[in-house]
Amino acid sequence: MLSKSLGCSYLEADDFHSQANKEKMSKGIPLTDEDRIPWLETLRDAIRKKLESCETVIVTCSALQKKYREILRCADPEYKCGDYRNCKLKFVCLDAPMEVLASRIIVRSKNGKHFMPVSLLQSQLELLQIDKAEGIHMVDATVSLQYILDSIVALLSNNKLNSM
Ligand SMILES: Nc1ncnc2c1ncn2[C@@H]1O[C@H](COP(=O)(O)OP(=O)(O)OP(=O)(O)O)[C@@H](O)[C@H]1O
Ligand SMILES: O=C(O)[C@H](O)[C@@H](O)[C@H](O)[C@H](O)CO
């Protein structure tokens, strides 16, 4: 929705998972760093290609930990570790309480549309770690999709990302 509204390209991180990672998650087994690092590196390389051709790209990704986001930030060849403000990659966190996320995942898995079972939600939230210094904007994800879209477009057009 956001990429369409901006007229830019879009990458969904789940499309970069290996079959083995997807099978593991569908069995309710949380991924480890060993599983995640090659996945994040492949996604990083895909983002880098977009940046090299001066494209804007929207990426949706459960980049739960700072160290995972650091891998993605390296898609910007000029990124210097910790220099979040000057990094070309900007992060927005779609924030919702566990119960809301759980009910959405349950509906989605009932439709057979996704490999992610609700049993993995707890382990995902336990990993979620955001350092204030990263300047990541939290966007309320309990509201309508249109309102979420408008909030992110406003952050982008006011150049507010990374300026907390
Ligand atoms: N603001 C919203 N209001 C109502 N339903 C929503 C909203 N956002 C997402 N959903 C629903 O929640 C489910 C999960 O959304 P979606 O697949 O976009 O999440 P995601 O962030 O990509 O999740 P994951 O990281 O697990 O892939 C979908 O069925 C979607 O329709
Ligand atoms: O790092 C991980 O454990 C995975 O990337 C997960 O976060 C799922 O793929 C995602 O939540 C479902 O979309």
TrEMBL record:
EC number: 2.7.1.12
Keywords, ordered alphabetically: ATP-binding, Kinase, Nucleotide-binding, Transferase
CC per GO annotation: cytoplasm
InterPro entries attached to this UniProt entry: P-loop_NTPase (IPR027417), Therm_gnt_kin (IPR006001)
UniProt-listed Gene3D superfamilies: P-loop containing nucleotide triphosphate hydrolases (3.40.50.300)
GO MF assignments: ATP binding; gluconokinase activity
Coiled coil, from the record: none
GO BP field: carbohydrate metabolic process
Pathway the protein takes part in: Carbohydrate acid metabolism; D-gluconate degradation
Family: Belongs to the gluconokinase GntK/GntV family.
Protein name: Gluconokinase
Species of the source: Gladiolus grandiflorus
